[in-house]
Amino acid sequence: MMNEIAVPFWLFSIMLVVTAWAVLSRLLIPSTRWVLRRRVNRVIDQLNSKLNISIRPFQLTKRQVLIDRLVFDPKVMHEIEVYAHEHALPRAVVQTEAMKYAREIVPSFNAYVYFRFGYWLARRCARLLYRVRAGFTNETRLGKVDTNAAVVFVMNHRSNMDYVLVAFLAAEESALSYAVGEWARVWPLQQMIRAMGAYFVRRKSDNTLYRRVLERYVHMATEQGVCQAVFPEGGLSKDGHLREPKLGILDYMLRGYDCEHERDIVFVPVGINYDRVIEDRTLVRAVGGQAPRRSKWFVLSTTAKFISRQAWLMLRSRWVRFGYAAVNFGKPLSMRDYCQQQKLNFARLDTKQRFVEVERLAKQLMVDIHGLIPVLPIPLLCQLLMELGEKPIVELELRARFYQRAEDLATRGRRVIVPNLTREHTFSTAIHMLRLRHLILDSEAGIRANLDSRDVMAYYANSINDAVAQPLKIKTVATTVDTVS
C-alpha cells in the first residue's frame, strides 16, 4: 500500500499543469467572475436609481448573444442570400463575412468601466483643458422626457473632444452609445471604446452586406431604447461651418419605425463650441481635400511635440487652459408627436418617400443645432477682426465692439458665454490667447489679424457667422446651468 511509484518528470509536469488548469477553470475563475458580476450588478442598481434614463437590458446582454442575434436577423440573412448570389460566393463564406462585420460593430458595454473609469477620465480631461459650461434652453422639458423612450442626442461635430465632453455632461441622463470612425480602431483604444458602449462605423463603405449589418444593429439598439449620440454631419467641420447632414444613421433609426405601436424616439439637439479646437490647424489644412496626406510619423511626432510643450509650460507654471468649452442642450423632439403632427408613419413609407421625410427631419434638426451653438469669446473676437480685414483697431475700441456684439447676440436668443461680471477679464484672456497662438499682430496703430493665420481665424468665426448675417429661424430663451470649471 505504501509502495513508491516512479513518474517521469515530463509526465509529472503535464499532470501539474492539468491540475492547475482544472483548479483555475473550475474554482478560481468562476468565483472571480461571481465576485466581479456581483460588484457590477451593485453598481448598475445604484446607477439606475440615479439616472434619468436607465441602462437598458440590451446594453447588459452578453456581446456574443448580440452578435448572434445580429447575424441571424431575418433581414441580414436575406442580404446574405442576395450577396452570395450576386457575387457567386458560397453562403457559408458570406455568413462568415457578416459575422466579421458584426464582431466589428457590436460593442461590449461595461457599466463599471463607463461610470467608474470613463466618466472620471472624461471629467478630468474636460476640466483640465477647458472651462466647461453646460446650458439648457428648456431644462424642465428635458427632465420630462419619457424615460422609456429611445433618446438620441443629435449634435454638431467640432472636435474629437466632443465624445469626451458630451459623455461627461450627459452622464446624469444615461450612458451614451456613439458611432466612432475607423480612426479609433487601434489597440488599446479600441477595447476601451467598446467597453464604453460605442460602436465602430466604416463611414465610406459601399459594401451592401456591411451596410445591412450596421443598419440592423442601429435599429436593434434604437428599438431597445438605448440612449445614443449622433453627429449628422458625419465628420468634423473643416471650415467651421455646419456641414450638410448625412442621412444614414437617422434613416437606420427610423426605417420601419411605427409611431403607433413602438416606443417613442426622442431627438435632443445639442450645440457644441470651443475657444480652441486642438486639431484646428489640421482641419483647416484639409479644406478642399488638396493637401497631401501626412505620414503617421509626422502625426505622432507633432502630437508628441504638442504634449511635451504643454507639459513644459505646466512645469514652469505658465500653462493656461484653452478657454471655454460649451455645450447647449435644446428642446427635445418627440417622433411620436412629430409623426402625429405631420400625419405620417415611417413604417408605411416607401424608400423614396422615407428619404424625403428623413431629409426634412435632418434639416430641421440642423437648424435647431445651429441656433444652439454657443457664442464664445475667441470665435467672437475672430469674427470682429475678420470683418476688419487688414485694418488695425485699437484695443479699447475692439473691447467696446466685443461687448456690443455679445449683447446683440444675447438679445437675439443666442447663448453667449461672456459673463457680465467678468467680461473685462474674459476679453483680456481671449486677446492673450490669440497673441500666444500668433493669430493677431500688434502695431502702433492697433491690433489686426495675422494674414498667415486668417484661415484659422475664419474657422472660429464661421462657427457663429451665420448668426450675425441673418435672424435665427427658431428663437430660444437660454437658461444657463454652469458646471464647476
User: Could you name the CATH class of the largest domain?
Assistant: Alpha Beta
Shape: globular
Structural class per helix/strand content? alpha/beta
Second rung of CATH, namely the architecture of the largest domain: 3-Layer(aba) Sandwich
Per the CATH scheme, the topology name of the largest domain is: Glycerol-3-phosphate (1)-acyltransferase
Uncertain segments are 467-485
Number of strands: 11
**Mean pLDDT figure:** 83
- State the helix count: 19
Radius of gyration: 26 Å
Number of domains: 2
Overview of this structure, please?
It is built from 19 helices and eleven strands. The strands form two sheets. Strands 1, 2, 3, 4, 5, 6, 7, 8 and 11 form a nine-stranded mixed sheet that branches. It has 485 residues and is an alpha/beta fold. The chain is 54% helix and 10% strand.
Short descriptors:
two-stranded antiparallel ribbon, 19 helices, disordered C terminus, 54% helix, 485 residues
Give a quick summary of the entry:
With 485 residues, the protein is an alpha/beta fold. The protein folds into two domains: 286 residues, Glycerol-3-phosphate (1)-acyltransferase, CATH 3.40.1130; 93 residues, no CATH class.
Helix and strand topology:
Elements lengths: L8 H42 L6 H4 L2 H9 L2 H13 L4 H15 L5 H19 L1 E6 L2 H5 L6 E6 L5 H9 L7 E4 L8 H7 L3 E2 L7 H16 L4 E3 L17 H7 L10 E10 L5 H6 L10 H20 L8 E6 L3 E2 H8 L8 H22 L4 H12 L6 H17 L11 H14 L3 E4 L2 E4 L4 H16 L9 E3 L4
Parallel strand pairs: 1-7, 2-5, 2-6, 3-4, 3-5
Antiparallel strand pairs: 1-11, 6-7, 6-8, 9-10
Helix pairs in contact: 3-5, 4-5, 4-10, 5-10, 6-8, 10-11, 16-17, 16-19
